[in-house]
Amino acid sequence: MPELLWTGPADGPVLVLAHGAGAAMDSDWMNRMAALLADRGVRVARFEFAYMAARRGPDGRRKPPPKAETLMGEYRAAVAAVLSAEPAARPVLIGGKSMGGRVASLVADELRADGEVRGLVCLGYPFHPPGRPERLRTAHLLSLATPTLVCQGTRDPFGTVEEVPAYGLAASIRFVWLEDGEHEFKPRAKLSGRTHAEHLTAAADAVADFARTVGYDGTGESQGDVA
Mind listing the pLDDT tens digit for each residue in 3-54? Predict the structure, then answer.
């Protein structure tokens, strides 16, 4: 079982949150997002995939991230660890930053069908590698049934606001677009008039609202629109 890093009130809806490909679960971005969500009543359970956790070993050796599909078992194990620690009746959502969200999306429908999770949150989804828009990572998103929230910067090199609407994604997926944000949601302040802190706050607001509305009737269906 992976080690869990908990943030937020004990009685809040639970969000299992995985890190991106190159930054640990306690990176500055992850710490800021977890704190913002905790302030909004969401209980966040962070964990690390084994390749990232290995960097904390005695030699501190960095390993490249494996293919997302190979990490699905580790995500399932993290959800099992959370469910063993938290009341089963509490709404549980899964998600992650970038690659972490992609892995979560690969197991979401399976875990929802088993009654283990009720929604999916992707913070900067990697729809394609930067500069390679033809290499889409969207096949499973065309029929995704799990209620899903994607927070995405409009100029994210992994999928911009001009590109993503043409993908024909499932109706279960709702978007919050962060104006002029890149993959970390950071805008060009002088051009956009917005700040990174404002975008992080907007994303946390949307996730908290989603966590409070998705699945509370016990069906796993969304009861409210996000965007």
Answer: 999 999 988 999 999 999 999 999 999 999 999 999 999 999 999 999 999 8
Q: What's this model's pTM, rounded to 2 decimal places?
A: 0.91
Q: Which residue has the tokens 């996000």?
A: 226
Calculate what percentage of the chain has a pLDDT beyond 70.
93
Going by their DSSP bridges, the two strands 119-123 and 92-97 should be labelled as parallel
d(CA 156, CA 10): 34
Sheet holding 92-97, edge to edge: 5-7, 43-47, 14-18, 92-97, 119-123, 148-153, 173-178
Please classify residue 217 by burial: count the beta carbons closer than 10 Å to its beta carbon, then call 0-12 exposed, 13-18 middle and 19+ buried.
exposed
Task: Look up residue 64 and give its two tokens.
Answer: 């490249």
115-136 pLDDT, tens per residue? Answer: 999 999 999 999 999 999 999 9
166 CB burial (10 A radius; 0-12, 13-18, 19+): exposed
